Amino acid sequence: MTRTLPLLLLLLGPLARAATVNVTVRDARGGAVNDAVVYAVPEGRELPLAKKSAIMDQKNRMFVPHVLPVQTGTSVRFPNSDDIRHQVYSFSSAKQFQIPLYKGTPANPVVFDRAGVVSLGCSIHDRMTAYVVVVDTPYFATTDRKGRGAISSVGAGKYSLRVWYPDMTTEPAPVPLTLAASDNQELVVTVRK
Fold first, then answer.
1. CA distance 152 to 185
2. Partners of 55 in the beta sheet?
3. In the structure, how many helices (H) and strands (E) does the chain have?
4. Which of 10, 136, 153, 158 has its CA 20 to 30 A from that of 46?
């Protein structure tokens, strides 16, 4: 047992030294911006493509979640938890696809292999809309109803903090960010709505 403790500490050491960035996104009037994606892009280094998976469900004729951030290379499953059929599609330049009319869960996930915003729709239910926000970094979060999101497990270094939100007309200027190990930074970003 005493041999495993040093090994465990060695393995957990990098996680204990990772930084967290707590971001609050506000509009020009000080109101909270819900469903904003905040993400930290490392400067001077590239990151490998994700080998992760995510889920964009359909419940009560709505996509859940409304905004899903993923790293480039992530495969996303589109289960249909409703008792009616849906037909999911996107004509976005970052990813064009169509899942024919279905119930349950399609056999093959959709791989999002290019950064950008992918607008989703259902050809049967026009009011069903959602977004998959594909970013080239694993450091991202979605803001809650109070406009807050926490990007955790970020390594020390220089980053460019970026924000995307539904109905955005102009991309906010990136915020330069320098993190040390174990930092816990608080940022407020104001955007135009």
1. 11
2. 77
3. 1, 17
4. 10
Q: Which fold has domain 19-47+138-193?
A: Immunoglobulin-like (2.60.40)
Mapping DSSP to helix (H, G, I), strand (E, B) and coil, where does residue 121 land?
strand
pTM here? 0.89
Distance CA 56, CA 114 (A): 18
Q: Can you identify the CATH homologous superfamily of domain 48-136?
A: Cupredoxins -  blue copper proteins (2.60.40.420)
Give me the tens of pLDDT residue by residue for the chain, a chain 193 residues long.
445 444 444 444 444 579 999 999 999 999 999 999 999 999 988 888 888 999 999 999 999 999 999 999 999 999 999 999 999 999 999 999 999 999 999 989 999 999 999 999 999 998 999 999 999 999 999 999 999 999 999 999 999 999 999 999 888 999 999 999 899 999 999 998 7
